[in-house]
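Re: your question about RRM domain-containing protein

S., sorry for the slow reply, the queue was backed up all week. Below is exactly what I fed in.
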Amino acid sequence: MNPASASPTVLVGPSSGLKIRLAPPSESKSALKLTEYYLSDQYLPFHNGVWALYNEQLSHWIPIDQFARYGKMADFQQKGVSWLAEALRTSNGVIEVDERGKSIRRIHKVPNYQGQLKRTVLAEGFGGQTTREELWQFFGGYGRVNDVQMSCFTDGAFDGRAFCEFTHERPAEEIVRADPAPQWGEQLLRVSCKQVALANLLAKAYCKARMKTNNIRTRSAVDQFCEDEKIAVVERYIIRNLRKELLDEESKGPTFYLEFGISTLTVQADGTLRSEDVKWEEACTLQFTMEQSAGGSAEWNAEWNSLKAPLLPYFDFVSHIKKASGSQGTIGFSRRLNEDDIQLVGSEITKLCGQKLTWARASLAEERALMLEWANMEAKRVAAALKEDQSGVGGSTLTRERKMKAKRVKRRVEYGIRRREGKIARDLIRRRREE
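Result:
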């Protein structure tokens, strides 16, 4: 073995024989650098995944074992929590590790991004050779600047548009209302509030032109758009509301949109959809095995509709049973399942058609087959309901919209009833266990 390539070893105690192998310093530094980047002002407020971890606790402590599964931190997950804790303790004033070595957090609070859109302006008309330093100096003449972002063509050249975020709303209002308009050399600039500019961009030129080609109508595509435009998580409700308005407008046509799993599906009038558009959280399905074969798919699902009531308080939606063989079937849930969820299902649902059940995670192939079948069933069901509405009202768009609104209200009421029934069933089970 080459000594230069071997991991350093530390002997603890003169006769204990205990050895601790330390990872190469470069790996520790890489883990620390990546962690500080993920928790930085430039990254944290603009990415949903790490932002959710940051806000999970009021004290903003993030469990290291959860953080190690985020993004490229997964490369260090196998090192273990203790190794990561020691690597992150070397941070110089950016992050801190708790005494137990189980959690981390930022030392300084995240800047307030509430109202970010209102204090950010879009200025158009700069020259193609303009530098970021020149833009920073230009906007600094109106007030203190937080950040300046340059918009570029696909080849990386500056396209003459720049976003400037001020620390307060007042300088943003002053530059927007300036009369005469600000000038760059001899060129008059067109300046508008980013909130208005993005609304026009998203609702008109951007969405209507690119949503069809890039499928930017989906939630994941809209989130990516927000990240590209540096819109903080706390302000993204504005863009999501615009997306809902656009989906409502387009749903009046021959196609409609169906929220399924973590995807927004475009469904044709006949209920067909593209399988590649169906997305879901992995590890959200279970497979059961009976002691002996009993009944068929119809009998299984008829009994399953009543058996699954105790599970409704814990899962928003539970699928039908997809029969895999004479004694095996697969069931899907609305979210990823952890070990506690599997234990819950196994304790609540012990028999089907008089046969005892054993539960295990479904394979990736079985999970994909079930989720695609589930999505297609939902699409066919909604398409049939829409077709029935259209035939019943003679194609009246206004009346159809009113009926669809009534159906949505009815579904919400039915969902509330199911939740209450599930709570009742859960209370009965709890009382039965206590007895």
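The mean pLDDT is 78. Residues 217 and 243 are 7 Å apart (CA to CA).

Happy to talk it through on Thursday.
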